[in-house]
Amino acid sequence: xxxxxxxxxxxxxxxxxxxxxxxxxxxxxxxxxxxxxxxxxxxxxxxxxxxxxxxxxxxxxxxxxxxxxxxxxxxxxxxxxxxxxxxxxxxxxxxxxxxxxxxxxxxxxxxxxxxxxxxxxxxxxxxxxxxxxxxxxxxxxxxxxxxxxxxxxxxxxxxxxxxxxxxxxxxxxxxxxxxxxxxxxxxxxxxxxxxxxxxxxxxxxxxxxxxxxxxxxxxxxxxxxxxxxxxxxxxxxxxxxxxxxxxxxxxxxxxxxxxxxxxxxxxxxx
Length: 270
Description:
The protein is of the alpha/beta class. The chain has eight helices and nine strands. It starts with 5 loop residues before the first strand and ends in a 25-residue tail after the last helix.
């Protein structure tokens, strides 16, 4: 029977539509995969920042995951904002019960505007349970430092590997804005570390870039691409999305990227 390629996003909702679940749905849809969601938290936010966060009962979060897996088992899972330790534990339990594969973990901790989006006690659950479950984790430089205690990417990679990470992409887009280039560090499961450098795009519209990148990686994994290819393709997609949205005004702060610069129809497989 023909079918779509289902991908599940487990993340928080962004009322302004630029990050979180909304960015994930846009990314997955633009790349031709079928987006499904389990919402972990509700944020009150716009392009200028986050003013409040409301939790969703952990049993409802887990129930969303169970409902998806029992009916439309996803080919890949992206995990974003988890809010607190009980939610993180509920997510880990549900994914373990359903033998989830191709998990992309984006440990959302701090928003672009500086708001903390993850309770301190949730970090331990992420380290102990979700990092070892993930096929790849995609922290930005600040998140990698918060988890490992080190500012040096090479040390961060070693520590994250010791924590059980199979593969790592440390995103460098939030580092020195005066640099003409942006360098991410990709540590593959085979032990190799590859700097991935691209020209920095002059744009204020970077809201949701981390969500978009991790969702793109999950989408490409769901399509069947090897991890390294999925990372390279996802980086190309986010770079183009930033460039396509750089001159568009959306809101008064950091606007979104243009997810639909070249959308694909839903892919149908046999």
